[in-house]
Amino acid sequence: MSRRAAIRLSVLGGFALPAAGATPPLPTRQVAEMRRRPVPSTGELLPVVGLGTNRYGGEAPDPGSPLCGVIAELVEQGGSVVDTARNYGRAEEVIGACLPERERYFLATKLGRYDRPPSSWTERAAREDLELAFVRLGIDSIDLMMAHDFSGPDELLPPMRELKGAGRIRYVGMSTSSDGHYEALLERMRTERLDFVEVDYSLDNRNAAQRVLPAAADAGIAVIVNVPLGGRSALLSTLLARPLPDWAAELDVRSWPQALLKYVLAHPAVTVVIPGTTRVEHLVDNCAAGRGPLPDPGLRRQMEAYVDAL
Q: What CATH number does the domain containing 160 carry?
């Protein structure tokens, strides 16, 4: 069965069918509360499954876009974290067009000097680009601003902190999706006042768990995980062609994406995962990973062995 068909069956299974000849009632949402975890620097609780938007930059901003339906469904499923970046095309503008209820969302975006010609990058340019983020998102305050992929952190971090002091940015962080940045990231975690880091981590890409995740836990830094479904390999495609193993019943999962996300969420240092999707049914499936049991250390090792043997 395809992922789409399986999700449709599981979603429809939550609604009772009306008796013959009866007027069908409007479906009633009965979504269990999503697990939440604290931001160490403040104690603020965030839902553990959010939304990545790296594929949202190719469309014009439009409140009637299907992408707005995905963003709206996130809060219906108990989530709030929407992660984007300046180098995702027009994604910030698309998100801005989709947010009639700003207060229901936790918005994170990222900047780097590659967002403009290298010859024009200065601290003044960094300040201009930070201001542009507010304009593109159409908001007065940003929950989390991150220096992206070690592209210009020296120019970005000082004005980011100034905006935090002014109440326009709530949290400051750094992000990467490359193992090659881990050493530099660890140094920044030791020397900078960071609220968040964002790193790549998945069942088939476990390098961040060796040093970065423990260091974040020790330093009291929240962790957002990008590429949690193993996006740099064919892992998800390979798994979707296989039935769920018996151990899936212990996690109360109905799909491979749920199993992969629960593996990542079981790491105690992880605050939020942000799987990307442009489809409502995939978002509903992903959000289900934020509810129910998580694998214990023994089951995590079993999951690792299963994937390593593929």
A: 3.20.20.100
